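Weekly sync notes, structure subgroup
Attendees: PM, AL, DS (notes)

Item 1: joint prediction request from the bench team. They want all three components modeled as one assembly rather than separately. Inputs as received:
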Amino acid sequence: MSTPMTGPVPPDHPAHDPDPNVETASAIARGELGDPALQDSLEQGRTGGDGSPVLEDPVLTVKDLNIVYEVGKGVHAVQDASFVLRRGEILGLAGESGCGKTTLAYGLNQLHRPPARITGGSVTFHDRDAAADVDVLALEGSALRAFRWSKVAMVFQGAMNSLNPVLSIRTQLGDVLTTHRPQMDRGERRRRSEELLELVGVDRGRIDAYPHELSGGMRQRVMIAMALALDPQLMIMDEPTTALDVVVQREILQEVLRLRRELGFAVVFITHDLPMLLEISDRIAVMKQGRIVELDTAENLYFAPQHPYTRRLLGSFPSLTGDAGDFVRAGFSGADQEATR
Amino acid sequence: MHLLRKIGFYLVALWAAVTLNFFIPRALPGSPVDAVLAKLALRGPVAPETRQAIEVMLGADTDRSLFQEYFAYLGGLLSGDLGVSVTYFPTPVSQVVGQSLPWTLVLVGLATTFTFILGMVLGTLAGWKRGTWLDSLIPATTILQAVPYFWLALLFIYVLSVNLGMFPISGGYDYTLVRPAFDYPFLSNALYYGFLPALTIVLSSLGGWLLGMRNMMVSTLSEDYILTAEAKGLSPRRVMVMYAARNAMLPSVSGFAISLGFVVSGSIVVETVFSYPGVGFTMLQAVQNNDYSLMQGMFLIITVAVLAANLVVDLLYGVIDPRTRARG
Amino acid sequence: MATSTDPTSAVPNSAAPTAGTPGRLRASLRRLATPSLVIGAGLVVVITLFGLIAPFFVADPLAISNLGMAPPSAEHWLGTTQTGQDVLAQLAWATRGSLLVGVIVAVLALFLSAFFGILGGYLGGWIDEGFSLFTNVVLILPGLPLMIVIGSYVQQRGLLLIAFILAITSWAAAARVLRSQTLSIRTRDYVQAAKVAGEKPHRIIAVEILPNLLPVMSSGFVFALITAILGEAGLSFIGLGVVGTQTWGSMLFYAQNGQALTLGGWWWFVPPGLMIAALGCGLSLINFSIDGIINPRLRTAPKAARSVRRAEQGAERADDSEATTKEVLA
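Output from the run, pasted for the record:
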């Protein structure tokens, strides 16, 4: 599902180039130019200034997750992935195309497709509304379907094809409710759907529209509205802004941050766009060839990357090599145009 | 706008068919009018108006220009005058058409509708359960698709009718027992006589629908909106029907014209094998008797029926695919 | 395009193993040589050889004898017709005749569809509008009734005339596919680049567009072959086929008129039908393989589902206690 067209520049040529800019970049990457003010502004941007919405208790625990593509001798797409996601936290999953980040994220919900198969490990969901933890990988059939979306919702590259082109927005919002809230009647479903649309800034009059009648940004807002329908505790976002232009990208991200503050869901945010992740994530996991090679707070990852691959990845974004904090002040525009085009 | 374009296209197609029907007898060698008049003369004197109707229909060396003839021909069509049949003299062609059309409409119409639905359902299941035993249905339908309709009909007659005596060999109903009426004895008898022809059409045309639907299902299932639907926790049934099959059937519906052409051609031959009193059989009777006016009339009515069926399906497509409505 | 510098990147872009050029060639050949292609090509080759060679070895197919309606025997392997003609000899000549008509029609239809589809799609504008309208009208007019009307006026129905009639009623579907393919290829970067570079249209069509259409065109050719052979059989069966040439359809025409059904002469009408079915089947199987090349998902999705199921069964056998069965197929 990740886009193979884009991705970081191949690390082996620019990283070891004695270019002065790159020198600065690795200096930043080594944390030598650490700037406390910048750290604060990053934190501020994420939380809206009134303290972090991240709670200490976990919402999801992943332990030694292994996913294999049953092709030929088998390709180990995810190897021994482990992390704990706290309530309200935004965890960024970064890495180049094909590193296994999408496979990992889909595995959390058993949404991986053949020939992918989970060969080991555990995914535990700590439900806010129930005492017992949920062993996600043991779920099957109707139990799995009831778990999906009500606990873990997903947002895909909505500007592309995540909405069914022949069903109206109302039908597609409504069938989440008919499936998970069968006691709701027609009127209630309609009211809830309209409420959700307004929550994400879409005019409620668009409820009878079809996906092709909406712009890319609108479609993505509808996807987010759909994801919010059941008040999930975790939202997995797979490159939700990749196909959008930078202004819309920015709006959508701000919307996600706002909703997170208001509703308190945790987010696993997948993208190959490291600068974007640095700005919005509380913590970032860097993946390479199916392994999480580094997992740390956005600040630590940016100012003091430990793994050589993280440094290479940071060095591969040109805007990071200029004035420190350039991409933050300029918004996403500079960084993103380079990274996603 | 979309609707107007569609209707415009069908008007052009209708005009093309009508014009072909006018020019073919005039452009090709032989003088059909002489042949028909000679046959008619055997049955008695030919009235001048009959002679003129035939000349307008088939072309003759009159002093009128082609242009005048063409308009006389169009005028004749509008007033439903297709000339007189030689085979069923003195019945007008339009009346023969009227007698044979219902048989074909019911036989081919019902068989095709049933096959289409069955093919969509089986294709949906085969695509949904891809990689399972249902995929082994595919080779079987391929063989059925490669078998000519009429040969399958011959086999059925040989095995089921001649050897086992389960079904009648030919005809649309037993005219020694019942006569056409809208009552139980006739309808049940017609059903009994129509079963084998219908079975032939169903089995021969099922493979195409099934295979097309199955392949589209496989393609559709890898679309992102299917993943969304699964992530939403919808029941497999709803994902299969509303998300996968709903979208996968669109090409089958928009490609209906191509498939219907095959079904109609196949049905004409099947009708002749069973001597079924529909338009196909009547058309071939006309060919064998050099009854050119009847043949042309049959060609016209088959074409109009095919165009009408396609128009209906096209309008239906506009309903099931909202994107065509907006493009309008 | 290439983002990974590491050759052992964790998730390959496609299911196909990547390898060096000679290995890749062999691998792709192996991938193309699916069972359906092998069986299909085998059927077609055997039938073609039968049609080419057998007529030299059989008796005169038209020689009549007193041994009418005789079942298969050592002397007449496929029995005799009502007038004592050898069915095997007729079948051999009919195979040749049907194949000949089929190939001529398929070639003609291919040319017509390429002309209207590719040229219209490439040139665009009112030419495309006109071609497209013409194609759709031809497509929607029922073929067989038209053939019957034309055929009934012409008493001297030669091979070429019948082939021509079949061709003009069977090219339209392929033309529509070719047009839509051409439309999508026309907008690709390398075609635009060639246009900007001032290449002549015929050169762009021949060099940039045609190679990309080859899979679709070969699929169209195979399909036209099936349609033509079935169409000819239908036309001959109702007595409007080529005069003086034996085909499978004409054999069936004589068989039905010779009361083969009521007299129990299955050996007369079963073989030609089987030949049509076998050839149609073989050609369809070949077409499946071509479809698999055009649309790889048709091939990989069922395979992926199967391989996971196999791996799961293996995992279950190896470790019963571990709950590995997942609702993979949902």
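Discussion: The domain at 38-151+232-306 of chain A is CATH 3.40.50.300 (Rossmann fold).
Action: AL to compare against the crosslinking data before next sync.
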